[in-house]
Amino acid sequence: MLLYVTVGTNDLERAGAFYDPVVATLGFRRQRWDETEIGYGADGDVRVRFWVVTPFNREPATCGNGVSIALVAETRSAVDAFHAVALASGGTDEGAPGLRPFHAHFYGAWVRDLDGNKIAAVCERPE
């Protein structure tokens, strides 16, 4: 259903330094970038689907209350690594790794990036 998602930043260089190691824990890497945006995806993906951008309207980036973006994790250990690297990179905890009541195998972790955007990693596979 979703073509791509974006999160805003007020400091693209700082955001890239945060996201490069964090999304690498999930098998994604920086695929495209310029002075206004950084795009992340998996090798072989036909489209960059996660973007960190400076707002097009040149207004300050803000995070939305109630907004959360979940990235796919292939394993629960990848969720654990995502959370640990995000915190080590300056992010804040919004939900430690663990099973959630959404269904029997929903294992996720939530963090806020350096601009306050809420990002999750979720594995829905049994281990």
From TrEMBL:
SUPFAM superfamilies (UniProt xref): Glyoxalase/Bleomycin resistance protein/Dihydroxybiphenyl dioxygenase
Q: InterPro entries from the xrefs?
A: Glyas_Bleomycin-R_OHBP_Dase (IPR029068), VOC_core (IPR037523)
Q: Which UniProt keywords apply?
A: Dioxygenase, Oxidoreductase
Q: Which GO terms describe its molecular function?
A: dioxygenase activity
Q: What is this protein called?
A: Glyoxalase/bleomycin resistance protein/dioxygenase
